[in-house]
Amino acid sequence: MGIIHFGALQSEIAKQLIHDAGYFEKLPDGVVLIDHGKIYFESDAALRVLRHIGGFWAFISNLRFIPRFIRQFVYRIIARNRYKWFGKDDTCSIPEPGWKSRFIDQPAI
């Protein structure tokens, strides 16, 4: 089983996990990561995910030493323009069977 699991922020299980991590405010748009019981948002979450992926991506995660306000600014520019720059599919892809257990709102196979 992989280290990183995915879920929609609107799902009941995600809401419960976020609540259990001690976060009770309105969630910001973007990536949310719960890592060892601590919650991370946006650029902080993205950089921690890269560290978990490892290899070259772990090296990129060292950008966390850039001041947070600069990282957040860049993160939000990328988030706003991602479909324009990288495209958008008309439909959601269906995960391979081995990936299904990585989604928290899906029953494990």
What would your notes on this structure say?
The chain is mainly alpha-helical and 109 residues long. It has a domain at 12-87. It is 41% helix and 7% strand. It contains 4 helices and 2 strands. It has helices spanning 12-20, 42-53, 56-60, 68-86; strands spanning 32-35, 38-41. Strands 1-2 form a two-stranded antiparallel sheet. The protein starts with 11 loop residues before the first helix and ends in a 23-residue tail after the last helix. 6% of the residues are buried. The mean pLDDT is 84.
Task: Name a few traits of the molecule.
mainly alpha; 4 helices; two-stranded antiparallel ribbon; single chain; 109 residues; globular
Cross-sheet strand order for the largest sheet = 1-2
Counted by DSSP, the helix tally is 4
Based on CA atoms alone, the radius of gyration comes out at 15 Å
Residue-averaged pLDDT: 84
List the helices and strands and how they pair.
Elements: H1 12-20, E1 32-35, E2 38-41, H2 42-53, H3 56-60, H4 68-86
Summarize the structure.
With 109 residues, the protein is mainly α.
